[in-house]
Amino acid sequence: MRNHSFLFWVVLGLLVDGVFVSVTDEVKPVSVMKGDSVILSTGVSELQSDDMLEWIFGEVIIAKIEEKHKISINVFRDRLELDSQNGSLTIKDIANEHEGLYKVDIRGRSETSKRFNVTVREGMMNVSVMEGESVTLRTGVIEIQGHDLILWKFEDHLIAEINKETNQFILNDSGDERFKDRLQPNEKTGSLIISKSRITDTGVYHLQMSNSTYTIQRTIGVTVTAVSVSLRDLAMILGGGGVVLLVGALFALVIYCFKKCKKQRGGMI
Ligand SMILES: *[C@@H]1O[C@H](CO)[C@@H](O)[C@H](O)[C@H]1NC(C)=O
Ligand SMILES: *[C@@H]1O[C@H](CO)[C@@H](O)[C@H](O)[C@H]1NC(C)=O
Ligand SMILES: *[C@@H]1O[C@H](CO)[C@@H](O)[C@H](O)[C@H]1NC(C)=O
Ligand SMILES: *[C@@H]1O[C@H](CO)[C@@H](O)[C@H](O)[C@H]1NC(C)=O
Ligand SMILES: *[C@@H]1O[C@H](CO)[C@@H](O)[C@H](O)[C@H]1NC(C)=O
């Protein structure tokens, strides 16, 4: 009872003051891979015109919005992007030196403070397979939980959507002949398997994992190499008189080496 009335007076006091304070002390863990882009959300959908916003990395202010939405960004070179609507901070092409604590403070009619602990793991390498093998596009997470939404895109087309919140797994492989019946999502990790790969699967794939705290964007290059064609080529060479040429060339090489070595030895004596 005492606690409740205490809270009541605190809330009333804040309302009377015209300022609502919402401070989340919890540090949100954000685990990314090297090369990812990460968007840290303020949780505010729209900033007010008189809001002051500061993004702090460790002890350093890295981005801020002053009055009149003036944006000034220092350090991080051209890796940072600040959204003037909602204050979200994008860190592109993240590297080890960007690991650490990020804090956002918004002061105005409402006050918000959020902290993120960003850790950077080794990056996902591009994938290279032989035609017919399956390709696994990994999210890098052991189990999707907090990630509300996972989108997989090939070039600009959505090929899979995993919505953990609604427990929906949508594959866009029926309208598109390209991936017809060859896509298989891993419901636990959110990874996507493309079976019986074709040369036309070669290209750039985009992953987007997001929940209300942050969004991770990753690009994975996939190369599918034709095996059958090169084997056929080899068979043609071997079958079509190529053997004779090949043996001839080898023989010439041996003779050449033999002569050269003899010459060298002769010179030394
Ligand atoms: C903030 O704005 C960016 C760019 O307009 C958008 O991509 C993002 O979804 C927004 N975030 C939230 C939490 O609304
Ligand atoms: C940030 O995460 C790292 C790795 O998980 C951990 O060692 C560190 O204690 C965390 N820092 C804070 C302030 O939560
Ligand atoms: C967002 O995802 C992360 C990682 O799974 C999780 O720690 C965090 O609690 C999630 N946040 C929300 C609001 O679901
Ligand atoms: C599904 O894939 C087709 C072909 O690539 C594309 O035209 C379409 O826009 C995709 N659907 C969605 C919802 O993105
Ligand atoms: C991965 O593939 C993409 C697209 O094919 C390419 O632009 C990028 O340089 C590759 N990255 C690495 C590390 O090989």
From TrEMBL:
InterPro entries with a match to the protein in the record: Ig-like_dom_sf (IPR036179), Ig-like_fold (IPR013783), Ig_sub (IPR003599), Ig_V-set (IPR013106)
Keywords: Membrane, Signal, Transmembrane, Transmembrane helix
Ranges that cross the membrane: 234-258
Species this protein is from: Phoxinus phoxinus
Pfam families from the UniProt entry: V-set
SMART domains attached to this UniProt entry: IG
Coiled coil: none
Signal sequence segment: 1-21
Domain Immunoglobulin: 27-121, 124-225
Protein name: Immunoglobulin domain-containing protein
